[in-house]
């Protein structure tokens, strides 16, 4: 899925004033309709209110943290939820407003802009376009009043190191924690294209496997990440999870145990418990290594074996 931003901006990156577009340009509206027709469009409630009705021929997804229903629209409460709702689509368009554009720009691959060559008052602004994008298409319409320019930007893969790579990695890890693996995949693919690391690759491998991607490709990616960073418990955790999904339970068990030897914490312990090779601590509030848990664990083991 391609995540795209689409907007019209005037000088100073103005996109709105008092809840409305500061201009009416039929050529821009025609371009917007032609590009977005048949695709889902995501917008904030204020942007939807400024339009006043669902746009035909498109699935209208409206982001609101307060509304509970909206006729003829899909209502979501976060950008992450909106993207998950579109994960099987070819392309999804984010169309405002300013806050959603700022949140979405680290995640998107493409930006469609209509630049209005005129100064307007504004209280809502389009974010700065990161250095990870380059202009790929331009069409000037000097015949219009005011004159406008249609510009398309694409994210550059692996050639420009952008300042948003750490933010992308952070969002990817947060998505994994919330089990939003498709969203994590989007974030981490962008981060890896800018600056790859073994840990980022292993996180991406997990998201790829969990979001319906090729498990064989994910497994190879996770294995290579561990080869490059063999002392990282998180990389072990991700590889073990992908191995388990690939039906390699014995290898997954060995990888989880390696992660524990490297200092892995609760998540690795939980995986060992999940596959039935390690019981939870007798006293959950104390660390497994606590002497009381160790002694009680031995007693439990002997008692279990004696009963068997």
Question: Overview of this structure, please?
Answer:
By secondary structure, the chain is an alpha/beta fold. The protein is 45% helix and 17% strand. The chain folds into 2 domains: 2-155, Dihydrofolate Reductase, subunit A; 165-277, Serine Threonine Protein Phosphatase 5, Tetratricopeptide repeat, CATH 1.25.40. The chain has helices spanning 26-36, 45-51, 79-85, 98-104, 165-177, 181-194, 198-210, 215-228, 233-245, 249-261, 266-274, 291-307; strands spanning 2-10, 14-16, 41-44, 60-63, 74-76, 91-94, 110-116, 124-125, 133-141, 148-155. An 8-stranded mixed sheet has the order 5-4-3-6-1-7-10-9, with helices on both faces. A two-stranded antiparallel sheet has the order 2-8. Helix 5 crosses helix 7 (198-210), helix 9 runs antiparallel to helix 10 and helix 10 (249-261) packs antiparallel against helix 11. The longest helix has 17 residues, at 291-307. The protein starts with a strand and ends with a helix. Mean pLDDT is 85; it is low at 158-162.
Brief sketch in words of this structure:
The protein is built from 12 helices and 10 strands. With 308 residues, the chain is of the alpha/beta class.
SSE diagram, text form:
Blueprint: E1 2-10, E2 14-16, H1 26-36, E3 41-44, H2 45-51, E4 60-63, E5 74-76, H3 79-85, E6 91-94, H4 98-104, E7 110-116, E8 124-125, E9 133-141, E10 148-155, H5 165-177, H6 181-194, H7 198-210, H8 215-228, H9 233-245, H10 249-261, H11 266-274, H12 291-307
Parallel strand pairs: 1-6, 1-7, 3-4, 3-6, 4-5
Antiparallel strand pairs: 2-8, 7-10, 9-10
